[in-house]
Amino acid sequence: MNAQSVERHEVVVIGAGQAGLAAGYHLARRGIEFAILEASAHVGDVWRDRYDSLLLYSPARYDALPKHPIPLGRNVFPTGAQMGDYLEAYVAHHRLPVQTGIRVNSLRAASDLGDGYLITAGPRTYGANQVIVATGAFQRPHVPEFAAQLDPQIRQLHSADYRNPGQLAHGPVLVVGVSHSGADLAYEVAAAGHPTMLSGKDHGQLPFSVDSRRGMLAWPIMRFVAWNLLTLSTPIGRKMAPLVRKGGGPLLRIRRGDLERAGVERFEARTSGVSDGRPMLADGLVLDVANVIWCTGFRPDYGWIELPVIGEDGWPIEYRGVVDLSPGLYFLGIPFLYSFTSMLVIGAARRGLRRRAGRAALSVGPLIATDPAQRAARLADLQRARGRFRPTSVRRRRRARIRPGRGLPAAVRAEGLGARLRRNDRGNRHGQRPTAVHQQPGRLRGHHAIVTIDIDRTSSRNCTA
Ligand SMILES: Cc1cc2nc3c(=O)[nH]c(=O)nc-3n(C[C@H](O)[C@H](O)[C@H](O)COP(=O)(O)OP(=O)(O)OC[C@H]3O[C@@H](n4cnc5c(N)ncnc54)[C@H](O)[C@@H]3O)c2cc1C
C-alpha cells in the first residue's frame, strides 16, 4: 500500500449518529485531531428514514447532545425528522469534521504502516492511531428464515422499511413482535382501518404512557434509574444487560389497553412457521393475512471489522467501550455498554469517559490521548477502576466476598484459605472453574484479604477472603 494515498488522522470515528457526534464533541474539546465518517448522504438520515409517525420516547429536554439544546419545548417529543435535523445542526454548530457518503467497508490493523488502523471505504483509505466505532445498535434487520416460504401475494416488510400504512396491501395485517415498534405499528395500521393481529409476548409495560401527565412527572425518576441503577455495576443491571442486547423492551407509549381499544387482536403465541403459504403461530393457528410486518428486531453486523474483537454473540468484546484486545479501538452506542441508556439519546449526552470509570459511563475523551504513554497510563487507571462484571469479555474480573465455610472449590481448598466462593463464583457460564488462588500480599479490605482467582488460566478475579 502506498502510504501517501492514505488519509491519516489521529482518531477516526465511524458513524455520525448521536454516539459518534457526542464522541466528536469530546474529542474537539480536548483538541484531538479527528474525522467522522458517515455512510449516509446527510447526517441524521438514519432518523429521517424511520417510520413517518415516529416520536422519540424521551422529551426534548433529555434528547440534546452536549452543549446544544434541541430547539423544541422541554416536554415535546421530537419526531424522527426533527431529531435528524437536530443532529445535522449539531454538526454545523460545533463545526465537527464529518465526511458524509463514506461507508466504511473494512477496518483492520495497519501492520504495513506501523501502529494503528487502516480503514477502507470504497476507493478511499484512511489511517488512524485510534478508532471509535459508533455505527449504531440497529444494524441488520432480522427476519426469520421461514418468511421466504410465505405466499408471494402476501406483502412483507421489516419495521426498518415501513414508513406508513400507504405501503400495505388492502386487507388484514399481521404484526410480528411486541416491542416498541411492534406496538406502535400495530396501533397505526389498525387506526388506518386494517384488521390487525399482533403476535408474540410483550416484555411488560410501564404503568403509564411516557407522554401522559404521570409519565412527564416520572421522567426524572426514570432517567435516574436508567442512568444509575440499571448499569453493569448493579445486580439488576447485569441481569438485564443480556436481555436488552437480545432486543425487546417494555411498552412505553402504546400499551396493552391502547392496542385493545384500537381493535388489535392479540396472540401471545409466536409466529413460528408457514402453512400453505400463510403464517402459522406456535399453537398451530394459521392466519389469513394480506400483509406481514416483521417487528423482529435487528442483529449486530460487524462483519467488516477484520480484527479478532467480536464475540460469539456478535457484539464486540469490550469493557465500557474499551477493547483491550486491540489497543486504541473503542465502541460506542451499543446496548448496555455500561447502562440501560448506553444506546439511547439520553445516554449519548452523558459525560464521556471519566477518569474514574468505576462510576462513569463510557467517556472516550480522556482515554484518547495522542501520547501513547499517557494513553497507556489512562488505560491502566481505567483497568484499576474496574470493579465488576464484564458481560461479553473472555477476561473477567469482579470483586466478591468469599465466605468462610462449606462447599469449597478444590482450587480454593488447595490454597488453604478456608473460604468458599459464592455460588456464582464457582465457575463462570462457560463452565470454567477456578484453578488457582493467589493472596495479594498486604491488600486488605476491612477484615477480608484480597485474593486473585485464576479461571482456567484465561482470566482472573479479584475477591476478598
Ligand atoms: C425505530 C426506532 C426508534 C427509536 N427511538 C428511540 C427513542 O425514541 N429514543 C432513544 O433514545 N432511542 C431510540 N432508538 C434507539 C437509538 O437511540 C437510535 O437507534 C439511535 O439512532 C442510535 O444512535 P447511534 O449513534 O448509536 O447509532 P445510529 O443513529 O444508528 O448512527 C450510526 C451511524 O453510523 C452510520 N454507519 C453505519 N455503518 C457505517 C459504516 N460502515 N460506515 C460509515 N458509517 C456507518 C449510519 O449511517 C448512522 O448514521 C430508536 C431506534 C429505532 C430503531
Description:
With 465 residues, the chain is an alpha/beta fold. The protein contains 11 helices and 19 strands. It has helices at residues 18-29, 45-48, 80-94, 180-191, 213-229, 235-246, 256-261, 345-348, 364-367, 372-385, 410-414, and strands at residues 6-14, 34-37, 98-99, 106-109, 117-121, 124-133, 140-141, 155-158, 173-176, 196-199, 265-267, 271-275, 278-281, 291-294, 298-299, 329-331, 434-445, 448-455, 459-464. Strands 1, 2, 3, 4, 5, 6 and 16 form a 7-stranded mixed β-sheet that branches. The chain has a 5-stranded parallel β-sheet with strand order 8-14-9-10-11, covered by helices on one side. The chain has a 3-stranded antiparallel β-sheet with strand order 17-18-19. Strand 12 (271-275) and strand 13 form a beta hairpin. The chain starts with 5 loop residues before the first strand and ends with a strand. Mean pLDDT is 80; it is low at 352-366 and 386-465. It binds flavin-adenine dinucleotide. Flavin-adenine dinucleotide is lined by residues 14-20, 37-40, 46, 50, 54, 56-58, 103-104, 134-138, 181, 333, 343-346.
